[in-house]
Amino acid sequence: MKYHSACGPPLHICQTMLTNFDSPFFFFPLFALFLKSKEIDEHQKGHRLRRGKRKNMVEVPRNFRLLEELEHGEKGQGNPMVSVGLRDSDDILLRYWNGTIIGPPGTAFENRILCLDIYCDENYPKAPPTLKFSSKVNLPCVTDKGVVDTSRLFRQWDRRVTMEGCLLELRKEMANPANKRLPQPAEGTNY
């Protein structure tokens, strides 16, 4: 009997091979599956090696990324010490956000709730968002108008950093030994 090698034997021959233990072809289908899986593994390994040399990654579109961050924030899945949410639900471009940081314990920021305005332009996440404190704060990476200098916060921007990650980095900056005892403006004062 002849059959096409790519398609394998017809069904009735496979059933005979699998039910007849004396048949020399009993183990053939299992062995063929084993060989096929080895070919797939070798192909994937080669693909992984080639992919590792590429510098370009697949980029998630801006709006998908922002919708993911919105869902993450609304469900409260992140760190409970920071939160991010869309300022206006009618903002279809997902540009204007609110951020909140609860000050780290053992610092001058302890028991303070610090509010920020976050602006994500069309370059986010390729470029960092614009962060501006609405609560007055004294930090080396914050200007006298409350704008966060992200170049001082991040040596080199990584597109994988989320808005929540930015707020966590600010919180870490507050807990930094050089900053944790800095004199702070009176609580409740705004820019």
Automatic annotation (TrEMBL):
<feature type="domain" description="UBC core">
    <location>
        <begin position="61"/>
        <end position="191"/>
    </location>
</feature>
<dbReference type="InterPro" id="IPR016135">
    <property type="entry name" value="UBQ-conjugating_enzyme/RWD"/>
</dbReference>
<dbReference type="InterPro" id="IPR000608">
    <property type="entry name" value="UBC"/>
</dbReference>
<dbReference type="Pfam" id="PF00179">
    <property type="entry name" value="UQ_con"/>
</dbReference>
<protein>
    <submittedName>
        <fullName>Ubiquitin-conjugating enzyme-like protein, putative</fullName>
    </submittedName>
</protein>
<keyword id="KW-0833">Ubl conjugation pathway</keyword>
